[in-house]
Amino acid sequence: MREALVNAVAHRDYSRRGEGIRIALFADRLECYSPGRLPGHVTLENIVAERFSRNETLVQVLADYGLIERLGYGIDRMLIQMEQAGLPAPTFRETAAGFLVVLQGQPVENYHVTGIDTSEWERQGLNERQIAALLHLQEHRRITNRDLQEQAPDVSAETIRRDLADLVARGFLLKVGERRATYYILK
Questions:
Q1: Low-confidence winner among 54-63, 104-113, 123-132, 151-160 (lowest mean pLDDT)
Q2: Using CA atoms, how far apart are residues 170 and 85, in angstroms rounded to an integer?
Q3: DSSP type of residue 182
Q4: SS3 category, 106
Q5: Is pLDDT above 90 for 168?
Q6: How many CA atoms lie within 13 A of 156 on its CB side?
Q7: pTM higher than 0.85 for the full model?
Q8: Which one of 21, 62, 98, 131 has the largest count of C-beta atoms within 10 Å of its C-beta?
Q9: What are the φ/ψ torsions at residue 148 (nearest 5 degrees)?
């Protein structure tokens, strides 16, 4: 990741105003976008073999600060480090106005279809109904005993009540109201 970030800073096209380097972190990858297309004679086909510095002074400053270990070998280092980590090689893509590096990570098994990683909840010992309740709350902002009963019709009302009470006791939820008017929100 460091190599991708340092390369984005070192090789971006600083003549392009109004656009900055963008880093996007997803559950399964990191994307690093740098304004400006590839510099000089460097192409997607020869990016590993060719060396070219658009901003030589900036590259030297980054090297002086120890952020560049060996001039001209950032791409090589990315390839080696990704391989050593057992990850796919980085992908490089030119866009209409910039350059994009994608570093693919390990697939996240517990990444729910809603885009929420539920592994921490599982690690804390929450059951499937409790996790379903928290996912419901992410979308709907409130949940009732009846909502959870509809999601788990084979489970007794008392078990649902205990699940919700446990989430309150653990500090996940806040109980609002009494008796039939009771609903729960994220704390």
A1: 104-113
A2: 36
A3: -
A4: coil
A5: yes
A6: 3
A7: no
A8: 98
A9: -70, -35
